[in-house]
Every structure is written in C-alpha cells, then in structure tokens.
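Risk register update: the risk of archive-format incompatibility is retired. Evidence:
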Amino acid sequence: MNQITQPTALITGASKGLGRALAGALAARGWRLVVDARTPGSLANELPAAVLAGDVTDPRHREALAAAVDTIGRLDLLVNNASDLGPSPLPALARYPIEALRRVYETDVVAPLALVQILAPRLRAAAGIVMNLSSDAAVEPYPGWGGYGSAKAALDQLSAVLAAEEPDLRVYAMDPGDMRTDMHQAAFPGEDITDRPEPAAVVPALLRLLDARPPSGRYRAADWAAADSAVEANR
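Archived output:
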C-alpha cells in the first residue's frame, strides 16, 4: 500500500503572481507540488515540483495534471488560480467580444470544474481542500468588469454548490484582493499600480486559512490578514 505522508497540492497558473508565491510557500513547508503554467520558464529550477506546461482549458493538459497527481498518490489541495481577465482595456458589456467572453468562462469557470471532476477521487480520499481564486469583481458591479466579474461570480456559486454536494471536502472561494500582478496591470493599462501589495504579501492569509480549515464558504484574504494582526496586537 502506498503510504504518502507529505501533503500534496496542485496549483494552476503558477508561473508568476499569487500562484507562484503560494507554491513557494507550500514547498518551504515540505509539501509535494504539481504546478502548471502556460509559460513555465525557470519554474522547474526554482520549485521542487512536477511542472507541466499547458493550458487548463485543454482536456489533454488536465489529464496530464491528473496523471502527475496519480504518480504521487494523493491530493490534499487543489488551487484553481489560473484565470483569464479578458480584453484589455476592459470593454463594456454592450461591446464585449463574445468569443473573448467564451474564453474567459472556459478558463475561469469550466476548467476549474473539470479539474475538480477528474481529481475528485483523490480529493475525497484525503478529505482535501478546493480553493477557487475569486475576486471582489464577483460581488461588486464595477464598470468594465462584467466579463471577468460574472465569471468569478459563477465560480463562487459553483464553489458553494460543490461544498453542499461534497460535505467531506472544504471548498473555498477566496478573494485575494488587489495585487501588483500582470493581470491587474492589464486591467488598468497605463496606470501606476505600485501601491498594490505584492502577491507574496497575501500568501500568509491563505496559509492561515489552510491551517484553520474553517467551514466551506467565501472568504477574503484581507479578513484573515486582519485576524493575524489582531492576534499579534494582543500578544
């Protein structure tokens, strides 16, 4: 019988930004990792991980990710981090290119569910966690954010229903907040976004969530970071 004691995570979209920062933090904790990226670059040299280049909208790539997980023998955490913002500058819904909208939904909604479906047996065996990266655009009607925001709203609802259907799993829709990433810069072309925090600054809140393992639901990284600050202030 295969006795794998190290926890294992699959993180999509790990070449940069939050996915890369979280992968590094979990690796430092001794986790086994399977990560994917459209352009992995030097990722394989920087992380002790199985790194697969590809696009999560490709069924063959998803099968390859599942095969990599099967090689390890367990899956404790699936992080659906890969996202498609859509066109930049962000268009109003009245002129949103429908093919681009389909691409956003394929990446941000369909692919995460497809990965959950294929990896469900491994997740159930480990009483694992699904973390779907959301956005405040899922709940706030920001002009121009109708494509990405509605896709993340759909992902939130998908997460809530999955949680109801899979009570042995923890399913989190996690809003990480604004970050200094290429995607956020694309949403605000030509603007200075250096006032936003680096993705690494958000990771401690995500780790705290994983450690606490609260009930399934929608959470904001800012709330977990605030809880950490309150604990420190009371010491």
